[in-house]
Amino acid sequence: MKRRVIALLAAFCCLFVTVMPAKADTFNTVTPGTSQKAATLLADDGKDNVATVAGETTDWYSFTVPAGVSRYYTVYGKNNSVKNYVKFTIIDASGSNVDEESCWNDSDFTYNFKAAAGSVYYISANNNDKDVTGSYKLNISWKEDAVGDDLKSAQAIQPGNTVTGSIDGCDDKDFYTFTPTVSGWYQFYVKNLNLMQYIKFNLLSDLQEKQTDELSQWNNYNARKAVQLNAGATYYVSVGIDEGHSTTTTGNYKFFVSKLSIAKVKNLKLSSPSSGTYKAKWSKISGVDGYEVQCSNGKSFADAATNTVYSGSTRTYSGYVSGRNGKTVYVRVRAYVEIDGQRYYGKYSAKIKVKLKK
Q1: Of 6, 34, 118, 230, which sits 20 to 30 A from 87 (CA to CA)?
Q2: Which of 46, 63, 167, 149 is nearest to 113 (CA)?
Q3: What is residue 242's predicted lDDT score, i.e. its pLDDT?
């Protein structure tokens, strides 16, 4: 019985092996064109295309951008095994070089650019050494540009909402527009999430591109500024790679423009733990950089002494008032946010009095 079971299991395993489908290749083997006019058409599906290049040979390929669409293309190339360099050149329909890269054995390149709708692009792969052969690969993919490329096609956003986007090539610029419903100070916050170059964020006040403010940030850094905006006016935010740092790198960013609103300090409580001293406690306010504590001999705070708590997470302060042992003092507290070296304050708490110990 045991032998029969083993035999059945072995037969089942053999059957299972024979019906398993063969693993599909993860690349296309292509035959290159021998001239630009006879270029081999490559699909822009993001799949690797592998070819062998002979000595002193230039291989030719092409890809076509559909009409009426705005796309950013990524061309990836790698010298797999040529014991010399392979020169890859991307050429537009007019014959101008879009990019040129020389890759030594086992090195690669990536180029991202905005392709003109309805155009044909060519890629040549050149091996100028007659005694060296080997293989290389090319990969072409694309991404829709979801955000407007100029002020007139800017994407509408709401103040206070966080916007996330991507830079899809060295010539990519994203434009957004918004209209505040309330005048006042606004916080303009930006962060470069993972682009390995500077991203420049511009806040523009009209279609003539009158600049209101500008922030540039390196990879994984953030920045913020306070800007005064008018209700009913139209503003724009443009995002792109900083001039002088244009590369083929792509990456993501986020930003928001929100009304600068600092909450009023609440639940202020006072005590006098020892002679001539007072201790203030209040409820913490999220998102602030610190607090100002004012102490005065009278309700008008005309002679108030101001002390700063340099931490938004701290919610206590202990002070000493000279010559006021056994007398009453008044205390009030307000929160602040510091942006670009300037403080912006919320409203003061209710003023509370305490009698100091003798």
Answers
A1: 118
A2: 167
A3: 63
Cα separation of 334 and 142, whole Å? 52
Going by DSSP bridges, is the β-strand pair 173-178/269-271 parallel, antiparallel, or unpaired? unpaired
End-to-end CA distance of the chain: 101
Query: What tokens appear for 276 in the block?
Result: 């001539």
Low-confidence ranges of the chain (pLDDT < 70): 1-25, 207-213, 242-248
pLDDT number for residue 19: 43
Instruction: Please answer whether residues 91 and 123 qualify as being in contact, where contact means their C-beta atoms are separated by less than 8 angstroms.
Output: yes
Instruction: Give dist(CA 147, CA 251) in Å, integer.
Output: 15
Q: What is the pLDDT of residues 298-333, one digit of tens each?
A: 999 999 999 999 999 999 999 999 888 899 999 999
One DSSP character per residue, 192-248 reads E-S-SS-EEEEEE-STT--EEEEEEE-TT-EEEEEEEE-TT--EEEEEEEPTT---S
Domains annotated on the chain, with CATH:
27-144 (2.60.120.380), 151-259 (2.60.120.380), 269-355 (2.60.40.10)
Are the beta carbons of 238 and 257 closer than 8 angstroms? no
For 293, how many CA atoms within 13 A lie in the half-sphere containing its CB?
25
